[in-house]
Specification:
Shape: globular
Number of helices: 7
Strand content: under 5%
Order of helices and strands: HHHHHHH
Radius of gyration: 16 Å
Number of strands: 0
Largest sheet: none
Distance between the termini: 63 Å
Length: 107
Amino acid sequence: PGRVDQRRDDPARPDDAAEKYIQTVSCFTGPVLKKIRQMRGLSVEEIAERTKIRKAYIEYLEEEQFTFLPAPVYVKGFVTMIAGMLDLPPQRVAEDYMDQYRGGRSA
């Protein structure tokens, strides 16, 4: 008796902070995906293990090191899977990221 569920009453819960941050995002870039992943408490290793995407590719995606990434069809698939794991809208995230990818590859 008298026990309080601290998760419900804690305003600084990571998911709450992540949700507030996501609402402010206008474009899902690599650094934005990295920040959301960190706010959700997931490591690169966890994402790699669950999605079977190489850890290096996840890091390249987050750092927008486009020259080290494979063909666009693979990049779009990777971003779509990662978005799903981060509870983000996969199609929007993929569209935003691929716009950055195409611009970065031609620069």
